[in-house]
Amino acid sequence: MNKYLNIILISFFSVLTYQYKISFSFYIPIVFFLTNYNQKNIFLILPISAISFYFTNSEHIIYLLVLYIFIAIYFIFLKSRKSNVLDCLYIFLVNFFILLFERKSFTYREVIVCLSFSLFSMLIYLYFIYNVLGVLSKQNSFRNYGFIETIMGIAVVVGATTIKIKNINLGLFIAMFYIMYMSQNGYSLLSIFFSILTMFLLKMVFNIEEAIMLPFVSAFYMFPSVYGSIILISFCLVGWLINFAYINVFVLQVSIGIAILFEIFKYSIVNLKNNKAEIVEDVYTQAIASVNNEIIGFASFLDLYAKEFSTSKIYNKKIGDGINNLMHSYCEGCYVRKECFSKNKGKTYAYFKNMLLYSKRRDYEMTNEELISFFKMCPYIVEMRKSAILINERLNLTNESTKSNTLIAEMNGVSNILRQYSVDNTLKNEFEYDVFYKIKKAICDYGFNVCYFNPKKILINDFLIEIGIRGVGFLQMKKVLEKIGDNYIVNKTTIVFQKVEKGKTYMNMVPRVNFEVDYGYGSIAQNGNGVCGDNFLIKELNDSKLIAAISDGMGNGYLANQESNTTLKLVDKVTSTSLSTTTSLQILNTFYFIQDYLEKYSTLDFVEVDRNKGQILFYKMGASTSYLFHKNGSFEKIENESLPFGIEEIIETKNFELSDEDIIIMTSDGVFENMESDEELALYIKGIMHMSPQNITYEILKYAKEHKKKVDDDMCVITLKVQLMN
User: Fold this and answer.
1) pLDDT digit string (tens) for 542-587?
2) Are residues 577 and 712 in the same domain?
3) Are residues 543 and 396 located together in one domain of the fold?
4) Among 387, 402, 417, where does a domain finish?
């Protein structure tokens, strides 16, 4: 369908069947079919057909021009309707009109003949459509593009018989080319059938004795790679040398030339490596390579951790024991516990840590306004400070070394992560490898010229197939490829555009995207600071998911920016692997459990949108409140209710089902705190939710900055708007 050399041959020779008193009955369904699935083909077919017809049937060129007018009418007024029934009816009427126009006679016999040829033309088109739709509905060895090309090949061979070179009929060489093409393209049985059929056609009808070569050519090209051409060339050379009586020497010479030309152009017209064993072997090789890449990627993740977060195990253990002692003694039964953790979020851990280290200093709390506010809220602050001093003296924390340059201090945490990683990989389910062979075969059977096919990820719930197709635009093949993928993958598929390069379109087949997500983002530094301490990350994953994250560094300015940026680097690294979300979050939690014993700290607000299932997962590590707004005005409030991240080793996530036009808003501290109430916020969002996500983000930041009531802090906002795809 989209192999340009084939289209040139079909256009040049199929129109010549006109000379056998059948008008354009063969030519019309071929033209409509080739242009129906790739309209650009019309700019190749019509000029080449016109040139061919002009030099061979110039006295009848008026009839071809009339046909071109009908084709133009179809593409201008009828093509957009995309109805096979309408196409068939139009083909029938166009044939009938041109046949009557040629004969200029309306006798009963002439009308019957015209009706018969018109019906014949319509049935050919129906057969083409039947085979194409068969590929899209279910894999069937008797419904593929090979059968369509067989019919077209016969039309081309018949048309080519009208031309002779040195008294040798050109139909023989065209038949030879099609046999080579079919054999090398994986249609072995069709090649045999076509060779036998054309042999009898050329020998019995056109008296071409050399047609006995055709079955031999079919047999030769059953061999893979270049061996078919080598055998044919050897066969022709032997016949040439011994002056074989039954075959003209010129035929042997031209056959050698065809074999050489076929090898030169083979890579542009044949879907190579369509053998099941080869494809399965490629998938297996890719699977092994993916495992190695995963290991390397995870090792890079560990390297990043080692660089950023290596600390002393003994010191961390003492700090942790001291903080847990304070938490269990004073916070578990505290009547303001929920309000305290909600207001201070992840910062409470740093407060406890500083209390253990510096409680002997009478003025240390006066250096931090947030710490003063925390002390005023806490009803047990006096008792807690006394306990902190005793714990400090008992554990000798002040004199203990606080940092180390080795990763040995964190081996327990790393070993837990490796166990999680191992369990996650054990639970993964792969496709049966022959699924990928069936998908590629179906794409080829539909008629696309596949130049690249690489199953990059082969997990049932996380697959990625990279596909390259020559000569067709993305929009023209997107729905077709999705339909083919849906036949073999239960969870359905979506085709995502990648690039166009040298006439080849590259795309990815991924899990079905049922929900599209548009997003906007923005941040503003605290007054007096040139650098915002908050950072954000938005990332589309290959498994139809999208993640968004905000990290709020401790304090503000450059150091806070570094801390939050380091946090998001970890998130970026761990989500670049094929780990499940649960495992990724548990790994992040383990690292934060280690990180929380350091002098630096940052929060993490993490969201994952599953665009396939229509679900959203919230994961908060001492982060600010998020909101999920529905188009009917209702909303969900997602708060951080657990202890600050790193104090508990059990992570908590919240899941929600998504609906069309839902809006998710994530912020850092200092944004929603400037709203008087949830009702005020809901009313405000309702007034701007018709805007784009980026404009909503700007409006929220603007409102928070202009209506500053409670806090002045770095601010960061991410807005996600969900749309249900048809």
Assistant:
1) 667 899 998 887 767 777 777 788 888 878 877 777 676 767 777 7
2) yes
3) no
4) 402
Report the distance separating Cα 381 and Cα 355, nearest Å. Answer: 10
CATH code of the domain in which 671 resides: 3.60.40.10
Q: Are 446 and 572 within one domain? A: no
Q: What whole-number distance in Å separates Cα of residue 373 and Cα of residue 351? A: 11
- Cα separation, 555 vs 347, in Å, equals 9
In residues, how long is the chain?
A: 726
Range of the structural domain that residue 54 is part of: 1-138
pLDDT at position 448 over 80: yes
Residue with tokens 């792969």: 430
Q: Which residue has the tokens 């090792």?
A: 299
Residue 152 falls within a domain, yes or no? no
Any idea what the Cα angle at residue 471 is, between residues 470 and 477, rounded to 5°? Answer: 85
Q: What is the pTM of this model?
A: 0.63
Task: Single out the residue in 100, 121, 138 at which a domain terminates.
Answer: 138
Burial, 350: exposed, middle or buried (Cβ in 10 Å; 0-12, 13-18, 19+)? buried
pLDDT in tens, 257-266: 999 988 888 8
What pLDDT does residue 409 have?
A: 42
The b-or-e profile of 165-201 (16+ CB within 10 A means b, else e) is eeebbbbbbbbbbbbbbbbbbbbbebbbbbbebbbeb
**Residue whose structure tokens are 């020497």:** 249
- Structural contact between residues 321 and 594, judged by C-beta atoms closer than 8 angstroms: no
